[in-house]
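call fold(seq) -> tokens
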Amino acid sequence: MKKHTVQTDRRDFLKVALAASAAPMILTSRKGSAQEPLPSSPPTIPWVQELPRSITPVNTVSALSPAPTIDANTAAGEVARATHQRFTELHGENARLYEFTVKPNDAWVFNPAYPPQTIWGFAPTAPDGSVGDAVTPGPVFNARYGQPIILRLRNQLPADHVGFGTPEISIHLHNLHTPSESDGFPGDYWSATRSGPTLAGPGQFKDHFYPNVYAGLDTFGGIGDPREALGTLWYHDHTMDFTAPNVLRGLAGYYLIFDDLDSGDERDPSPTALRLPSGAYDYTLIFGDRRFDSTGRMVFDQLNPEGTLGDKIVVNGKIEPVLRVDRRKYRLRFLNGGPSRFYEIYLQNAAGNAVFPFTYIANDGNLLPNPLLNQVRVRLGVAERGDIVVDFSRFPIGTELYLVNQLEQTDTRGPGNVRAPGTRMLKIIVDRNPAQTDVSRVPSFLRTLPPIPADFTGVPVRRWVFERSGGLWTINGELFQVGSPRATIQKGNAEIWELVNPEDGWQHPVHIHFEEGRIIGKTRLGVSVPVPAHERGRKDVYVLGKDEMVRVYLRFRDFSGKYPMHCHNTIHEDHSMMLRWDIV
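ret:
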């Protein structure tokens, strides 16, 4: 068995190649010129493939064989992971059970103009024990706070894989309050024959324990503080050095979690339930940029620290698909799945000359205290999420609408200007009346925010500078060192992290694992600027614009272990704009 040989060799190669003057084609100066333009992807045939009318959540399995254990069951072939934290206390023995196999699908069609090609996806085990084809995005989880989950992952990616990506995996659930050993740390990658530098050995499978608790177990009691709830999460591969290409190949999906307030039932009789649109009318959408060669096959340059900006946008794995909807309210959950394009999404009519308003209810998976009414745009950096409610009852049957990206972007460094009419990503056809009366609603108050100090005097401050240094992506001038924590924090403590982008050429969507934070200040060129309304709740991705600093208040609670912070432009992340921090 070999341990992280491929990744170590590649990291050494990248450090040498990027630093060597003999390789100017992948180097840029600190404020260098833009990337060389790449050939455009071939034309596609729009509005032919249809998305399903509703999203079907993945089914549980009745049992896993061998049964899950607190310690790694290496004798039965499990990866040599760390012990599940607080497993008995949080009723891991009563968890709902799921099993996914990560494997190729050689017949994926992004668009009818392109040939069938190989993606990597997730194939769930059905209740009868059968395993179907791998799909991208992966199946949607409908989880619930207080009901733990064990997800067994099996890796059947080809060990002899050639091309971009690597057949090792480390699946991260973004951003559940999850113990470190199940978080999907970048150095915890594995396959049957290889394991990362922070795992003790490879294996045939790995069990992830998702306790589905709120933050604040040790201070609030029970299953934590319900003011800390998230709703819209996602899972994706996080393998060190290969996150961008592995996610590009298809390894991502949604994880929704509900509680008594956001219950996932618009007919919930409880007087405290929000009764937001639910079931078939709660729809998840992942947007991602991709580029294709002259034959219509997906391409990506994983050695270039500037990456490959996609000029085609996939929506739930399809290019220019169609979604048919009923004349009623929908909860649409948006996710920027990357790797590097930003989006500013509008709802337009077929003529492209009218934009329709909607209600913005959640950012980064967190319900806002109050809905933002009459909004016309959702701006998303990579890994940001935004939940909106659209009332399609205002449109007659037969109306055609489009979700459009009006944000220009010419390279992987960040977005440019907003320009209409933009790029159409998804066609929506209002084609029928609902079978039942729409009883869903958007209350004027959604979820209370947990308290933060009125005075931050005495709260420790750490400053993290995200910049381009000698042709490399760095934090505080250093590359990612998987075995060395850059911060060690006592469990239960709180800190302020200052996230700084001193550059005027790049933007960085910074993700901090494990805990949601609160933005308590933002400056541009040293001058205080207002925090946008949709960023005034809890967040886990903080977009650093040009010459910006964002101050974030964070608490580190309930579990210990290793976690990362990184730029979620996954190209930057793969080229070392990441650090490890530990809770002790």
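The chain has three domains: 61-258, 279-432, 461-583.
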